[in-house]
Design goal:
Number of domains: 1
CATH superfamily: Oxidoreductase, molybdopterin-binding domain
CATH topology: Sulfite Oxidase, Chain A, domain 2
Distance between the termini: 21 Å
Bound molecules: the ligand Nc1nc2c(c(=O)[nH]1)N[C@H]1C(S)=C(S)[C@@H](COP(=O)(O)O)O[C@H]1N2, molybdenum atom
Largest sheet: 7 strands, mixed
Radius of gyration: 19 Å
Number of helices: 9
Helix content: 10-25%
CATH architecture: Alpha-Beta Complex
Order of helices and strands: HHHHEEHEEHEEHEEEEHEEH
Length: 313
């Protein structure tokens, strides 16, 4: 076991509960004093379907046919709720996404615990239509709403020691029934190299199809890295940590020979148990060819020049 990166549930739960309680008190105080805030407009986060305001023109957005909202919201990998993709929507229906905080930690000059509604006010949102490819062989085209992670990274002022960024999902077995089982090690973890994290394609997403993220798609805030397999796009993030050494990722730790840290979409490097050459778009019958870096090679291939992609898969 990799001790350094092994976060025990006991290290996280009490603090998370503490933060949530504090946020709850802050919200209640706002109600009593008649302060209006976005938080009051979005009371419990159970308000699925709330429209999000798009404030600037989306970069790198595709002109490709979008996956239907129904398919995108009823076929989900989110093991915190279920390993059955068709059960996640129902099991996450009452997931509470308010109050919600996102902690920035590690090698930064500006560590801080942000309230999700303050994040919504701080960063102008844009819509970006991206391809999304799961390592299992299905794909989608989704109109995400969010902002570049690089905007947030800049605000945190990472020091020269920050070479990687680690992302951590909420740990809350009471709300997330899948976390009561040992199917994966909880909380779900992911990581990116600093240049990947600050690449302009990399998003923090808070919505899709014009609305706040449905719970099953990773509400209230998730990562989107469109040139990598879907498991890198970690959902329901509560913590972002700037670190010196390559962090682990849940899937890499679970099965290292099948899921590497990089996880770049690559039709030429097969998964040990299946080919990655083709994919099925949700809603389509026949398969299509998988594109190198999921079609984003012209924008990201340089990040990996000189690297053996068979070794660093
Ligand atoms: N916390 C967390 N994030 C996660 C997962 C998960 O199980 N838990 N599944 C990943 C995988 S394998 C995929 S393909 C995408 C699915 O995202 P979607 O449901 O929005 O299509 O989420 C990724 N992020
Ligand atoms: Mo996936």
């Amino acid at each position: 076991m990799d001790k350094k990166h092994d976060i025990k549930p006991s290290e996280i739960t009490p603090k998370e509960l503490y933060m949530n309680r504090r946020q709850f008190i802050a919200g209640a105080t706002a109600v009593l004093t008649g302060l209006s805030s976005l938080e009051l407009l979005v009371p419990s986060g159970a308000d699925s379907g709330q429209r999000l305001k798009i404030e600037r023109r989306g970069q790198y957005t595709l002109q490709e046919e979008q996956t239907s909202y129904k398919d995108a919201t009823n076929y989900n990998n989110f093991y915190e709720f279920s390993t059955d993709k068709e059960d996640v929507a129902e099991l996450s229906r009452n997931f509470r996404t308010r109050p919600w905080t996102l902690a920035i930690e590690g090698h930064v000059k500006k560590p801080k615990v942000y309230d999700i509604d303050d994040i919504l006010k701080l960063f102008p949102l844009e819509e970006r239509i991206y391809r999304f490819r799961c390592v299992e062989g299905w794909s989608m085209v989704i109109p995400w709403i969010g902002f570049p992670l690089s905007d947030f990274v800049k605000k945190c002022e990472p020091t020269s020691k920050a070479r990687y960024v680690e992302f951590i999902t909420l740990l809350n077995p009471e709300q997330m029934p899948g976390q009561r089982r040992d199917v994966l090690e909880w909380p779900y973890l992911e990581g990116l190299r600093m240049d990947e994290a600050t690449h302009p394609l990399t998003l923090l997403s808070l919505g899709m199809y014009g609305e706040v993220l449905p719970n099953q798609n990773g509400a209230p805030i998730r990562l989107i890295v469109p040139w990598k397999y879907g498991f890198k796009s970690i959902k329901s993030i509560v913590r972002i940590r700037f670190v010196e050494n390559m962090p682990t990722s849940t899937w890499t730790k679970a099965i290292p020979r099948e899921y590497g840290f990089y996880a770049n979409v690559n039709p030429d490097v097969d998964h040990p148990r299946w080919s990655q050459a083709r994919e099925r778009r949700l809603g389509e019958f026949s398969k299509r060819k998988t594109l190198m870096f999921n079609g984003y090679a012209d924008k990201v291939a340089h990040l990996y020049s000189g690297m053996d992609l068979n070794k660093y898969f």
